[in-house]
Amino acid sequence: MSNININWKGHIAKYQAAMEDLNLDFCILTRIKSITYLAGCFVPWKSAILLPKEGEGEPILFTVLLDVERVKAEGQLETDGWGPMKGFNWETKIQRTAKKMGIYSPKGKAPRIGVELGLDICVTGQLLSYTEAQLLKKVFPGCELVDFNDKTERIQLIKEPEEIEMLKKASEITDVGQAAVKKELQERPPGKVFTENEIAGIGTLAMRKAGSNYEWTFTGNEEIGSGYRASWTFNGCTPATNKEVKESESLLVDLHSEYGCYLGDLSHNYVLGDCPPELKKFNDVFEQLSYALIDNMNPGTTFDECYKEVHKIAVKEGFGNDLFFGLGHGIGCIGNESFPVVVPGKDWGDMTFEENMVEIAAVVFNRPGLGGLRLESPTWVTRNGAQLLPKTSLDVDYV
């Protein structure tokens, strides 16, 4: 799949070191981002990793029976199957394996089990459900379920050099997709009208040819929004439809790639034909906001400080209410698409950009009846400042 060698065993060691900090007997990990980070392959089914402490055995991935052989062939972990039938139930397989590994005994002390709890804004997060928690308490009587989620987030926040190379490759692929879209728009014959779905298909085909395996987002694969569909207030979700793209209106093209389990996410903005002066002014302010965001994604800068620098430009230009307050989200392996969210305020504002974070720089700038634009671009935080991984310009394209 790739000539870039990710240290998957090193990922396991990071998790096991964090387990020691929490004095856990073992972990049962269900988040897609943990499963990808440790297994190193695409695992789309309801799955879990049984992770023992260092020196007490090898981790085992449990996925649905119908996909076990592929995951064995493409992944890095020993893999077993479960299914909703006698002898193969999820909790039964996990308990039986824990006993076989010697990390659990019904006659021993009740275990402290690391699990991933919380509420994820992404429906694909796969944090431990109430039902799963009850099943674990049934097969591990008296167990204590200890939240491991903060450890998961922290471990994956700072990227290794090999991970950054994977993210660069995924971004190269989204550049290819945007170039293909732009070419088709430029070369459209007189009278040709594209639908949002056609544009999504153009980008997807080009990226697949370039090596992308998966349009990973849960928000409709490629997100294409035009006209009124691009300009709803705080509009950060535009699954493509059969709406026709008209001239002189906003067109945002948000493409998603995956390479070697690592993700690309690149939004670019276009206007076909003549651009009304009021929309051109709006677009110009968007570009100012985008460059200001990149300029402030530096190690040691807080999310609050970054937001204030960007927001004051919107206010100065008379568009303070049209800028969404979120200016970024996480990116990494499959499933890693939220933490950390760059927003101001007491919950997140004190968090700082750190060297070797890779964050999606995001500007959502919308005014209903006028236009809507979106920046999403993976951005590597280096000691010398922020570096965009894609090469596609931040500026609006007038086609």
Question: In words, what does this structure look like?
Answer:
Helix content is 33%, strand content 21%. It has a six-stranded mixed β-sheet, sandwiched between helices. A four-stranded mixed β-sheet has the order 7-8-9-14. Strands 10-11-12-13 form a four-stranded antiparallel β-sheet. The chain contains ten helices and 14 strands. It folds into two domains: 8-156, 3-Layer(aba) Sandwich (Creatine Amidinohydrolase, Chain A, domain 1), CATH 3.40.350.10; 158-398, Creatinase/methionine aminopeptidase superfamily (Creatine Amidinohydrolase), CATH 3.90.230. The model has no long low-confidence stretch (mean pLDDT 95). The chain has 399 residues and is α/β, with parallel strands linked by helices. The longest helix has 26 residues, at 161-186. The chain has helices at residues 8-21, 32-39, 68-74, 90-101, 130-139, 149-157, 161-186, 196-209, 277-295, 303-316, and strands at 26-29, 48-52, 60-64, 78-82, 112-115, 144-147, 223-226, 250-259, 262-271, 328-330, 358-367, 371-382, 385-388, 397-398.
